[in-house]
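Hi all, long-time lurker, first post. I run a small reading group and we've been trying to get comfortable going from sequence to structure in the token notation. Rather than ask abstract questions, I figured I'd post a concrete chain and ask someone more experienced to write out its structure so we can walk through it together at our next meeting. Sequence below, copied exactly:
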Amino acid sequence: MTDRYNGIFAPLEISAEAFKAAYDTPDIGQHIEKDYKGLSYLSWPFAYRYLKEHFPTFFVAFEEKTVGEVVFGAPGCYYLRPYLTDGMKRTVALIFPVMDRRHNAIKELDGRAISDNCQRAAVKCIATFTGLGLRLYAGEDIPKEEEQKGAPKLPLQQDAPKSAPVAKQAAPETTGGTFNGKEALVEFCEANPLGLTSVRACQEAVKEALDTVGLTTGANVKTPGDFGNVITTLVTTWVKDKGIKMTKATLTKDLDAIRASSTTAQQSIEAVKAFVEAKK
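-- Answer (accepted) --
Happy to help. Here is the structure in token form:
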């Protein structure tokens, strides 16, 4: 172990040609997903799939603090050290911070946090050393071949939709021309378009959605884009809780439609009601 920390190991070699071929893999784009903030990512099952297709003998392992313990550091600065290996040779280890869903450092560890971050670290490790999905970290769209076919781009960072001019229909969401996200969320909860058990249940669900997108309270929802992100996060959670089977492409299309309709609470309510009705 001391030798490994000192960089004494047989290096795993990946040729420039193999790296470029993996980097340019044309069909990764169909498996790109977006998180609640609009950031694009490649889910770990597909990262492993492409790893085995391009480099069948490679796998991700982690440096261990003690036998079976892969987390280093202290509260607020926990980190993992993933590396790529074929069982005999290996790469250097990356430093991967243990984060929550909002990309903030975790101060209290639990089994789920460790498991989720190990998968994320593995995906970044695969991308770093093989090129598979590395374009996401570089901010490039994947793949260029799909752009030529007219497929929609999948940007690293999705821009929040700009507020369109609304002719005298902004109340109660606007106050003095400024979007009032808090009032919009109150109106949404009172309407309860997802059909949750009560208005209170809807309020609790909205609080979780706010926390997920890093806005904390309704007062932080200052634009229709913020409001749309909260509502689509809420809908995504509802779909998962209900066990509704949908393709990623279909869900993304529906969420984009709901987000585009979220310039006022009423429009958002109607869009969510239509979505729920279609899933019955």
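A couple of things your group might point at:
Residues 239 and 245 are 8 Å apart (CA to CA).
The beta strands are 32-34, 40-42, 59-62, 79-80, 82-85, 96-97, 174-175, 178-179.
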